[in-house]
Write a structure and sequence with these properties.
Structural class of chain A: mainly alpha
Largest interface: A-B, 48 and 58 residues
Number of strands of chain B: 6
Number of strands of chain A: 3
Structural class of chain B: alpha+beta
Number of domains of chain B: 1
Radius of gyration of chain A: 24 Å
Oligomer: heterodimer
CATH class of chain B: Alpha Beta
Largest sheet of chain A: 2 strands, antiparallel
CATH topology of chain B: Glutaredoxin
Helix content of chain A: 40-55%
Radius of gyration of chain B: 14 Å
Strand content of chain B: 15-25%
Mean pLDDT of chain A: 92
Low-confidence stretches of chain B: none
Mean pLDDT of chain B: 91
Number of helices of chain A: 5
Low-confidence stretches of chain A: none
Order of helices and strands of chain B: EHEHEEEEH
Number of helices of chain B: 3
Strand content of chain A: 5-15%
Largest sheet of chain B: 2 strands, parallel
Distance between the termini of chain A: 57 Å
Shape of chain B: globular
Shape of chain A: elongated
Strand order of the largest sheet of chain A: 1-2
CATH architecture of chain B: 3-Layer(aba) Sandwich
């Protein structure tokens, strides 16, 4: 009989593992798939499910290993929820940006090859101006 | 189409090469354009410095803005197909 296997409290380590996989795959996989990125639902289910499994692990066996498992699972799931629901919407007020009907402010900047470009270079054409956060 | 970020033009060149992008990517290292356009997200860059909030504007030949979209959650950005739909309906 495999006693050590029977005594192993699986939820205590599976819970935090599922939470960590949920967090990592959000930033590596889900961010590339708009449906998974915007709602983050799959990763939220993984992260919260993993935290619930860690709680279950603590109920099964109240020892320091279960507490560590719950600590890891709980803190990472809280951080992830904070990022999804709070942090990513902390943006400056949109009121400072030019409104529809306003004249577009000037832009004169170098492009990726170092050539200076401005909106005047596109006179007579519609221009789609896309500001993005960048990769620094 | 013009893209703008606070990346250096070397970084933008790498990005354009990696993704095969043909349009100009402007480099606003001095944070000029993002400030004149009121889009600066202060301390958005780890370690300080402003970055642009994600924003898209359609500028008409006469220089006026006919459409804009500012996301209120930077994770959830406008999708390319939505922008194409706007451009199609704008004629």
């Amino acid at each position: 009989m495999n006693v050590s296997r029977k005594n192993f409290n699986h939820p205590a380590w599976l819970g935090p593992l599922i939470v960590l996989i949920g967090v990592v795959t959000y930033f590596t996989v889900a961010v590339r798939i708009p449906d998974l990125r915007d709602s983050a639902i799959v990763n939220l289910v993984m992260v919260l499910g993993g935290a619930a499994i860690a709680v279950w692990g603590l109920f099964r066996r109240r020892n320091w290993k279960s507490w560590i498992g719950l600590g890891v699972a709980g803190s990472f799931s809280l951080l992830f929820c904070w990022y999804i629901f709070v942090y990513s919407s902390q943006l400056p007020s949109p009121d400072t940006a030019p409104a529809v009907g306003a004249v577009a402010p000037p832009i004169e900047l170098p492009d990726q090859s170092g050539r200076m470009l401005s909106l005047e270079n596109f006179s007579g054409q519609r221009v789609l101006v896309v500001f993005y956060r960048g990769y620094w | 189409m013009l893209a703008v970020s606070v990346d250096t033009n070397e970084e933008s060149a790498r990005l354009a090469e990696g993704l095969g992008l043909q349009f100009p990517i402007l480099s606003d290292v001095q944070e000029e354009a993002i400030r004149t356009w009121g889009l600066a997200h202060e301390n958005g860059k780890p370690g300080g410095g402003a970055i642009s909030r994600p924003a898209i504007f359609l500028v008409e030949p006469d220089g006026t803005i006919s459409w804009r979209r500012l996301t209120d959650d930077y994770r959830a950005r406008l999708r390319p197909e939505d922008v194409l739909e706007v451009l199609r309906s704008a004629g």
